Amino acid sequence: MRDELPGIPDHGWPADEVLDRIDARRAGDLDWRGGRAFSLVYNPGDEGLERLLHAVADRYLHENALNPFRYPSLLAMEQEVVAMGCRLLGTAPDAGALTSGGTESIFLAVQVARDAARTGRGIAEPQLLTASTAHPAFAKAAKYLDVEHVRVPVGPDGRADVDAMAAAIGDRTGLVVGSAPCYPFGVVDPIGDLAAAAAERGVLFHTDACLGGWLLPWLERLGEPVPAWDFRVPGVTSVSADVHKYGYGFKGASIVAYRDRTLLTRQHFWYDDWPGGLYASGTTAGTRPAAPIAGAWAAVTHLGVDGYLRMATAVRDTTRRFVHGIDAVAGLAVDPRPDAAAMQITATAPTLDGPQAGTGAVPARGSALDLGALGDAMDRRGWALDRQQGGLHLMVSPYHAQVVERFLVDLGAAAAEGGTSEGVGATYGGIA
Ligand SMILES: *Cc1c(COP(=O)(O)O)cnc(C)c1O
Predict the structure, then answer these.
(1) pLDDT (mean) for 65-90
(2) Phi and psi (nearest 5°) for 307?
(3) What pTM does this model have?
(4) Smallest CA separation from ligand 1 atom 12, residue
Protein backbone atom coordinates (compact mmCIF):
# COMPACT_ATOMS: atom_id res chain seq x y z
CA MET A 1 0.00 0.00 0.00
CA ARG A 2 2.71 2.46 1.05
CA ASP A 3 4.63 1.96 -2.20
CA GLU A 4 1.50 2.66 -4.22
CA LEU A 5 1.17 6.14 -2.73
CA PRO A 6 2.59 8.54 -5.32
CA GLY A 7 5.26 11.20 -5.24
CA ILE A 8 4.78 14.65 -6.73
CA PRO A 9 4.18 14.37 -10.51
CA ASP A 10 7.26 15.35 -12.55
CA HIS A 11 5.13 17.47 -14.82
CA GLY A 12 2.14 19.32 -13.43
CA TRP A 13 -1.24 18.11 -14.61
CA PRO A 14 -3.47 20.50 -16.56
CA ALA A 15 -6.31 22.00 -14.49
CA ASP A 16 -8.93 20.06 -16.47
CA GLU A 17 -7.21 16.81 -15.70
CA VAL A 18 -6.92 17.65 -12.01
CA LEU A 19 -10.63 18.40 -11.87
CA ASP A 20 -11.52 15.26 -13.80
CA ARG A 21 -9.55 13.18 -11.35
CA ILE A 22 -11.18 14.89 -8.39
CA ASP A 23 -14.65 14.40 -9.84
CA ALA A 24 -13.97 10.74 -10.53
CA ARG A 25 -12.94 10.29 -6.91
CA ARG A 26 -15.91 12.26 -5.60
CA ALA A 27 -18.26 9.75 -7.20
CA GLY A 28 -17.52 7.45 -4.26
CA ASP A 29 -18.27 10.09 -1.61
CA LEU A 30 -21.28 10.35 0.68
CA ASP A 31 -24.34 11.66 -1.17
CA TRP A 32 -25.48 14.34 1.27
CA ARG A 33 -27.33 16.44 -1.31
CA GLY A 34 -29.73 13.56 -1.85
CA GLY A 35 -30.51 13.40 1.88
CA ARG A 36 -28.65 10.11 2.28
CA ALA A 37 -26.33 11.36 5.03
CA PHE A 38 -27.34 11.43 8.72
CA SER A 39 -24.18 12.95 10.14
CA LEU A 40 -21.25 15.07 8.93
CA VAL A 41 -23.29 17.43 6.73
CA TYR A 42 -26.23 19.56 7.88
CA ASN A 43 -28.23 20.13 4.73
CA PRO A 44 -30.63 23.05 4.97
CA GLY A 45 -31.98 22.26 1.50
CA ASP A 46 -31.75 25.97 0.65
CA GLU A 47 -30.26 26.62 -2.78
CA GLY A 48 -30.09 30.37 -2.26
CA LEU A 49 -28.03 29.94 0.89
CA GLU A 50 -25.76 27.45 -0.83
CA ARG A 51 -25.08 29.82 -3.74
CA LEU A 52 -24.39 32.61 -1.28
CA LEU A 53 -21.89 30.50 0.67
CA HIS A 54 -20.05 29.53 -2.51
CA ALA A 55 -19.80 33.21 -3.50
CA VAL A 56 -18.49 34.12 -0.04
CA ALA A 57 -15.88 31.33 -0.03
CA ASP A 58 -14.73 32.52 -3.45
CA ARG A 59 -14.11 36.03 -2.11
CA TYR A 60 -12.13 34.94 0.98
CA LEU A 61 -10.23 31.88 -0.20
CA HIS A 62 -6.77 33.45 0.16
CA GLU A 63 -7.16 35.97 2.96
CA ASN A 64 -5.61 35.28 6.35
CA ALA A 65 -7.46 36.16 9.53
CA LEU A 66 -4.29 35.84 11.62
CA ASN A 67 -3.94 39.61 11.57
CA PRO A 68 -7.48 41.00 11.55
CA PHE A 69 -6.17 44.56 11.49
CA ARG A 70 -5.11 43.99 7.88
CA TYR A 71 -8.65 42.85 7.12
CA PRO A 72 -11.15 45.19 8.75
CA SER A 73 -13.93 43.37 6.89
CA LEU A 74 -13.08 40.11 8.66
CA LEU A 75 -12.67 41.78 12.04
CA ALA A 76 -16.11 43.35 11.72
CA MET A 77 -17.80 40.15 10.57
CA GLU A 78 -16.15 38.12 13.31
CA GLN A 79 -17.13 40.56 16.05
CA GLU A 80 -20.66 40.72 14.72
CA VAL A 81 -21.26 37.00 14.35
CA VAL A 82 -19.78 36.42 17.82
CA ALA A 83 -22.10 39.10 19.21
CA MET A 84 -25.12 37.52 17.51
CA GLY A 85 -24.18 34.11 18.91
CA CYS A 86 -23.49 35.47 22.39
CA ARG A 87 -26.84 37.25 22.51
CA LEU A 88 -28.57 34.07 21.35
CA LEU A 89 -26.87 32.14 24.17
CA GLY A 90 -27.64 34.84 26.74
CA THR A 91 -24.27 36.42 27.48
CA ALA A 92 -22.51 39.72 26.74
CA PRO A 93 -21.88 40.31 23.00
CA ASP A 94 -18.10 40.51 23.50
CA ALA A 95 -17.77 37.47 25.80
CA GLY A 96 -17.07 34.90 23.09
CA ALA A 97 -14.84 33.92 20.19
CA LEU A 98 -15.18 32.28 16.80
CA THR A 99 -13.19 29.06 16.51
CA SER A 100 -12.57 26.49 13.80
CA GLY A 101 -15.13 24.02 15.19
CA GLY A 102 -16.63 22.34 18.20
CA THR A 103 -13.42 20.58 19.11
CA GLU A 104 -11.47 23.84 19.28
CA SER A 105 -14.27 25.51 21.27
CA ILE A 106 -14.14 22.63 23.74
CA PHE A 107 -10.32 22.68 23.93
CA LEU A 108 -10.42 26.38 24.78
CA ALA A 109 -13.14 26.00 27.41
CA VAL A 110 -11.15 23.18 29.05
CA GLN A 111 -7.92 25.21 28.90
CA VAL A 112 -9.65 28.25 30.44
CA ALA A 113 -11.11 26.12 33.24
CA ARG A 114 -7.79 24.37 33.86
CA ASP A 115 -5.94 27.67 34.17
CA ALA A 116 -8.70 29.24 36.30
CA ALA A 117 -8.50 26.25 38.66
CA ARG A 118 -4.72 26.53 38.84
CA THR A 119 -4.44 30.26 39.42
CA GLY A 120 -7.77 30.93 41.14
CA ARG A 121 -8.12 27.85 43.35
CA GLY A 122 -4.54 26.61 43.62
CA ILE A 123 -5.30 23.20 42.10
CA ALA A 124 -2.11 21.96 40.46
CA GLU A 125 -3.76 19.15 38.52
CA PRO A 126 -7.40 19.95 37.86
CA GLN A 127 -9.84 17.28 36.68
CA LEU A 128 -12.48 17.37 33.95
CA LEU A 129 -15.82 15.74 34.87
CA THR A 130 -18.24 14.61 32.14
CA ALA A 131 -21.00 12.10 31.58
CA SER A 132 -20.18 9.08 29.41
CA THR A 133 -22.18 10.60 26.54
CA ALA A 134 -20.03 13.76 26.35
CA HIS A 135 -18.40 14.19 22.96
CA PRO A 136 -14.93 12.61 22.50
CA ALA A 137 -13.57 16.15 22.03
CA PHE A 138 -13.49 16.35 25.85
CA ALA A 139 -11.35 13.19 26.12
CA LYS A 140 -9.15 14.61 23.38
CA ALA A 141 -8.83 17.96 25.16
CA ALA A 142 -7.96 16.13 28.39
CA LYS A 143 -5.21 14.24 26.57
CA TYR A 144 -3.73 17.26 24.78
CA LEU A 145 -4.01 19.59 27.77
CA ASP A 146 -2.83 16.96 30.28
CA VAL A 147 -5.97 17.11 32.39
CA GLU A 148 -7.41 14.02 34.09
CA HIS A 149 -10.81 13.05 32.66
CA VAL A 150 -13.40 11.55 35.01
CA ARG A 151 -16.40 9.95 33.26
CA VAL A 152 -19.70 9.05 34.91
CA PRO A 153 -22.25 6.65 33.32
CA VAL A 154 -25.59 8.16 32.25
CA GLY A 155 -28.98 7.05 33.59
CA PRO A 156 -31.43 4.77 31.73
CA ASP A 157 -32.94 7.81 29.96
CA GLY A 158 -29.54 8.59 28.43
CA ARG A 159 -29.17 11.76 30.49
CA ALA A 160 -26.33 12.63 32.86
CA ASP A 161 -27.04 11.17 36.31
CA VAL A 162 -27.16 14.25 38.57
CA ASP A 163 -26.55 12.43 41.86
CA ALA A 164 -23.65 10.42 40.46
CA MET A 165 -22.14 13.50 38.82
CA ALA A 166 -22.54 15.59 42.00
CA ALA A 167 -20.92 12.80 44.02
CA ALA A 168 -18.00 12.74 41.59
CA ILE A 169 -17.21 16.44 42.08
CA GLY A 170 -14.06 16.51 44.18
CA ASP A 171 -11.46 18.96 45.42
CA ARG A 172 -9.61 18.78 42.10
CA THR A 173 -12.60 19.17 39.79
CA GLY A 174 -11.94 22.15 37.53
CA LEU A 175 -14.82 21.81 35.06
CA VAL A 176 -18.13 19.94 34.97
CA VAL A 177 -19.75 19.36 31.57
CA GLY A 178 -23.30 18.75 30.35
CA SER A 179 -24.55 18.35 26.77
CA ALA A 180 -27.46 20.09 25.06
CA PRO A 181 -28.12 17.70 23.47
CA CYS A 182 -25.56 14.88 23.49
CA TYR A 183 -24.60 13.51 20.09
CA PRO A 184 -25.39 9.78 20.58
CA PHE A 185 -29.00 10.15 21.80
CA GLY A 186 -30.13 13.75 21.17
CA VAL A 187 -31.14 14.15 24.83
CA VAL A 188 -30.45 17.30 26.84
CA ASP A 189 -28.71 16.68 30.17
CA PRO A 190 -30.28 18.19 33.34
CA ILE A 191 -28.12 21.29 32.98
CA GLY A 192 -29.80 23.28 35.80
CA ASP A 193 -29.15 20.60 38.43
CA LEU A 194 -25.64 19.83 37.16
CA ALA A 195 -24.62 23.49 37.02
CA ALA A 196 -26.06 24.08 40.50
CA ALA A 197 -24.04 21.15 41.87
CA ALA A 198 -20.90 22.60 40.27
CA ALA A 199 -21.58 26.15 41.48
CA GLU A 200 -22.14 24.92 45.02
CA ARG A 201 -18.56 23.63 45.00
CA GLY A 202 -17.18 26.73 43.26
CA VAL A 203 -16.52 24.76 40.05
CA LEU A 204 -16.94 26.07 36.48
CA PHE A 205 -19.60 24.45 34.28
CA HIS A 206 -19.61 24.05 30.49
CA THR A 207 -22.72 23.36 28.41
CA ASP A 208 -21.69 21.59 25.22
CA ALA A 209 -24.29 22.95 22.80
CA CYS A 210 -22.13 22.27 19.74
CA LEU A 211 -25.15 20.42 18.33
CA GLY A 212 -28.02 22.34 19.92
CA GLY A 213 -26.70 25.87 20.25
CA TRP A 214 -28.14 27.02 16.94
CA LEU A 215 -31.24 24.82 17.13
CA LEU A 216 -32.66 24.70 20.68
CA PRO A 217 -33.25 28.48 20.94
CA TRP A 218 -35.54 28.32 17.89
CA LEU A 219 -37.34 25.19 19.11
CA GLU A 220 -38.01 27.04 22.36
CA ARG A 221 -39.44 30.01 20.45
CA LEU A 222 -41.64 27.57 18.56
CA GLY A 223 -43.12 26.58 21.91
CA GLU A 224 -41.32 23.26 22.37
CA PRO A 225 -40.60 22.19 25.96
CA VAL A 226 -36.82 22.63 25.75
CA PRO A 227 -35.03 22.02 29.07
CA ALA A 228 -32.98 25.06 30.20
CA TRP A 229 -29.34 24.85 29.15
CA ASP A 230 -27.90 28.30 28.25
CA PHE A 231 -26.53 31.28 30.24
CA ARG A 232 -29.98 31.88 31.75
CA VAL A 233 -29.14 28.86 33.93
CA PRO A 234 -27.22 29.96 37.05
CA GLY A 235 -23.84 28.26 37.25
CA VAL A 236 -23.30 27.82 33.49
CA THR A 237 -19.96 29.56 32.90
CA SER A 238 -19.18 28.58 29.29
CA VAL A 239 -21.02 27.27 26.22
CA SER A 240 -19.89 25.88 22.85
CA ALA A 241 -22.22 26.24 19.84
CA ASP A 242 -21.23 25.21 16.31
CA VAL A 243 -22.20 27.54 13.49
CA HIS A 244 -21.17 24.82 11.04
CA LYS A 245 -23.89 22.49 12.33
CA TYR A 246 -27.42 23.89 12.83
CA GLY A 247 -26.13 27.43 12.13
CA TYR A 248 -25.74 26.22 8.50
CA GLY A 249 -22.43 27.98 7.84
CA PHE A 250 -19.84 25.88 6.07
CA LYS A 251 -17.17 23.89 7.93
CA GLY A 252 -14.77 25.69 10.20
CA ALA A 253 -16.99 27.83 12.45
CA SER A 254 -18.04 27.45 16.09
CA ILE A 255 -18.57 29.84 18.97
CA VAL A 256 -17.18 29.46 22.46
CA ALA A 257 -18.80 31.90 24.89
CA TYR A 258 -18.33 32.72 28.56
CA ARG A 259 -20.53 34.17 31.29
CA ASP A 260 -17.74 36.56 32.16
CA ARG A 261 -15.31 38.21 29.73
CA THR A 262 -12.43 37.73 32.16
CA LEU A 263 -12.73 34.00 31.52
CA LEU A 264 -12.45 34.64 27.77
CA THR A 265 -9.22 36.59 28.24
CA ARG A 266 -7.62 33.43 29.70
CA GLN A 267 -7.62 31.90 26.22
CA HIS A 268 -5.84 34.91 24.68
CA PHE A 269 -2.17 34.62 23.79
CA TRP A 270 0.37 37.48 23.69
CA TYR A 271 4.05 37.16 22.87
CA ASP A 272 6.21 40.27 22.69
CA ASP A 273 9.71 38.77 22.86
CA TRP A 274 10.15 37.68 19.27
CA PRO A 275 12.42 39.22 16.62
CA GLY A 276 9.42 38.95 14.32
CA GLY A 277 7.47 41.46 16.39
CA LEU A 278 4.41 41.29 18.63
CA TYR A 279 2.41 38.12 18.11
CA ALA A 280 -1.10 37.84 19.53
CA SER A 281 -4.05 35.55 18.92
CA GLY A 282 -7.44 34.90 20.45
CA THR A 283 -7.80 31.22 19.57
CA THR A 284 -5.53 28.24 18.86
CA ALA A 285 -4.66 28.74 15.20
CA GLY A 286 -1.92 30.93 13.78
CA THR A 287 -2.71 31.42 10.12
CA ARG A 288 -6.49 31.33 10.06
CA PRO A 289 -8.76 30.68 7.08
CA ALA A 290 -10.93 33.71 6.44
CA ALA A 291 -13.71 32.02 4.51
CA PRO A 292 -15.39 30.33 7.51
CA ILE A 293 -15.62 33.69 9.29
CA ALA A 294 -17.33 35.34 6.34
CA GLY A 295 -19.35 32.17 5.74
CA ALA A 296 -20.63 32.13 9.32
CA TRP A 297 -21.58 35.80 9.11
CA ALA A 298 -23.28 35.26 5.76
CA ALA A 299 -25.29 32.22 6.92
CA VAL A 300 -26.49 33.89 10.11
CA THR A 301 -27.43 37.18 8.48
CA HIS A 302 -28.99 35.57 5.39
CA LEU A 303 -31.15 33.17 7.41
CA GLY A 304 -32.05 35.60 10.18
CA VAL A 305 -34.57 34.78 12.89
CA ASP A 306 -37.31 33.91 10.40
CA GLY A 307 -34.99 31.63 8.43
CA TYR A 308 -33.82 29.80 11.55
CA LEU A 309 -37.41 29.37 12.74
CA ARG A 310 -38.27 27.89 9.33
CA MET A 311 -35.31 25.49 9.52
CA ALA A 312 -36.10 24.52 13.12
CA THR A 313 -39.73 23.83 12.19
CA ALA A 314 -38.56 21.47 9.45
CA VAL A 315 -36.10 19.73 11.80
CA ARG A 316 -38.74 19.38 14.53
CA ASP A 317 -41.48 18.03 12.25
CA THR A 318 -39.14 15.70 10.37
CA THR A 319 -37.65 14.39 13.63
CA ARG A 320 -41.17 13.48 14.76
CA ARG A 321 -41.84 11.66 11.50
CA PHE A 322 -38.62 9.69 11.88
CA VAL A 323 -39.33 8.79 15.52
CA HIS A 324 -42.92 7.69 14.91
CA GLY A 325 -42.05 5.91 11.68
CA ILE A 326 -39.12 4.03 13.19
CA ASP A 327 -41.16 3.04 16.24
CA ALA A 328 -43.79 1.63 13.87
CA VAL A 329 -41.29 -0.80 12.31
CA ALA A 330 -41.59 -4.16 14.08
CA GLY A 331 -38.48 -4.93 16.08
CA LEU A 332 -37.20 -1.33 16.10
CA ALA A 333 -37.56 1.63 18.44
CA VAL A 334 -36.01 5.02 19.00
CA ASP A 335 -34.45 4.76 22.43
CA PRO A 336 -33.91 6.85 24.50
CA ARG A 337 -36.54 9.42 23.51
CA PRO A 338 -34.67 12.35 21.95
CA ASP A 339 -35.22 16.01 22.85
CA ALA A 340 -33.93 17.27 19.52
CA ALA A 341 -32.53 16.32 16.14
CA ALA A 342 -30.34 13.28 16.87
CA MET A 343 -31.53 9.81 17.85
CA GLN A 344 -30.53 6.20 18.30
CA ILE A 345 -32.37 3.35 16.57
CA THR A 346 -32.37 0.27 18.79
CA ALA A 347 -33.73 -3.25 18.52
CA THR A 348 -36.62 -4.30 20.70
CA ALA A 349 -37.10 -7.84 21.95
CA PRO A 350 -39.63 -9.64 19.75
CA THR A 351 -43.17 -9.50 21.14
CA LEU A 352 -45.61 -12.40 21.31
CA ASP A 353 -47.31 -11.41 18.09
CA GLY A 354 -43.92 -11.55 16.48
CA PRO A 355 -42.04 -14.72 15.55
CA GLN A 356 -42.79 -16.52 18.81
CA ALA A 357 -46.56 -16.00 18.41
CA GLY A 358 -48.52 -18.88 19.79
CA THR A 359 -45.50 -20.78 21.03
CA GLY A 360 -45.69 -19.31 24.50
CA ALA A 361 -41.93 -19.06 24.42
CA VAL A 362 -40.21 -16.24 26.25
CA PRO A 363 -38.34 -14.30 23.56
CA ALA A 364 -34.67 -15.15 23.70
CA ARG A 365 -32.31 -12.24 24.15
CA GLY A 366 -30.38 -13.03 21.01
CA SER A 367 -33.47 -13.00 18.84
CA ALA A 368 -33.71 -9.22 18.60
CA LEU A 369 -33.01 -7.68 15.22
CA ASP A 370 -29.32 -7.52 14.32
CA LEU A 371 -28.65 -3.80 13.97
CA GLY A 372 -25.28 -4.24 12.29
CA ALA A 373 -26.98 -6.27 9.56
CA LEU A 374 -29.77 -3.70 9.38
CA GLY A 375 -27.18 -0.94 8.91
CA ASP A 376 -25.62 -2.97 6.09
CA ALA A 377 -29.04 -3.50 4.49
CA MET A 378 -29.65 0.25 4.64
CA ASP A 379 -26.18 0.88 3.18
CA ARG A 380 -27.15 -1.30 0.22
CA ARG A 381 -30.18 0.95 -0.24
CA GLY A 382 -27.93 4.01 -0.19
CA TRP A 383 -28.64 5.30 3.33
CA ALA A 384 -25.60 6.08 5.46
CA LEU A 385 -26.45 5.40 9.12
CA ASP A 386 -23.61 5.51 11.64
CA ARG A 387 -23.12 2.55 13.96
CA GLN A 388 -22.79 3.29 17.65
CA GLN A 389 -22.49 1.10 20.75
CA GLY A 390 -26.22 0.62 21.34
CA GLY A 391 -27.67 1.01 17.87
CA LEU A 392 -27.75 3.06 14.69
CA HIS A 393 -27.43 6.82 14.76
CA LEU A 394 -29.44 9.33 12.82
CA MET A 395 -29.28 13.12 12.83
CA VAL A 396 -31.98 15.17 11.14
CA SER A 397 -31.41 18.07 8.74
CA PRO A 398 -34.16 20.22 7.21
CA TYR A 399 -33.64 18.52 3.83
CA HIS A 400 -34.62 15.15 5.29
CA ALA A 401 -38.26 16.32 5.11
CA GLN A 402 -37.98 15.41 1.41
CA VAL A 403 -36.83 11.84 2.00
CA VAL A 404 -38.24 10.68 5.33
CA GLU A 405 -41.08 8.63 3.80
CA ARG A 406 -38.74 6.87 1.38
CA PHE A 407 -36.32 6.20 4.22
CA LEU A 408 -39.07 4.62 6.34
CA VAL A 409 -40.23 2.39 3.48
CA ASP A 410 -36.64 1.21 3.00
CA LEU A 411 -36.13 0.74 6.74
CA GLY A 412 -39.26 -1.41 6.94
CA ALA A 413 -38.08 -3.47 3.97
CA ALA A 414 -34.57 -3.80 5.37
CA ALA A 415 -35.94 -4.94 8.73
CA ALA A 416 -38.33 -7.40 7.06
CA GLU A 417 -35.52 -8.77 4.91
CA GLY A 418 -34.28 -10.39 8.07
CA GLY A 419 -30.93 -12.09 8.25
CA THR A 420 -31.54 -14.59 5.50
CA SER A 421 -29.63 -12.77 2.78
CA GLU A 422 -26.00 -11.69 2.50
CA GLY A 423 -24.99 -14.11 5.25
CA VAL A 424 -25.87 -11.83 8.14
CA GLY A 425 -27.25 -14.61 10.34
CA ALA A 426 -30.78 -15.95 10.68
CA THR A 427 -31.43 -15.00 14.29
CA TYR A 428 -34.11 -12.46 13.37
CA GLY A 429 -35.35 -14.08 10.19
CA GLY A 430 -38.98 -14.16 11.24
CA ILE A 431 -39.45 -10.55 12.16
CA ALA A 432 -41.52 -8.57 9.70
C1 LIG B 1 -20.01 17.88 16.68
C2 LIG B 1 -19.95 17.92 18.16
C3 LIG B 1 -18.79 18.29 18.83
C4 LIG B 1 -17.45 18.51 18.13
O5 LIG B 1 -17.53 19.43 17.13
P6 LIG B 1 -16.58 19.39 15.84
O7 LIG B 1 -17.08 20.58 15.10
O8 LIG B 1 -16.83 18.09 15.15
O9 LIG B 1 -15.18 19.53 16.27
C10 LIG B 1 -18.85 18.39 20.20
N11 LIG B 1 -19.97 18.12 20.87
C12 LIG B 1 -21.11 17.73 20.26
C13 LIG B 1 -22.34 17.45 21.07
C14 LIG B 1 -21.14 17.62 18.89
O15 LIG B 1 -22.25 17.21 18.26
Answers:
(1) 95
(2) -65, -45
(3) 0.92
(4) 210
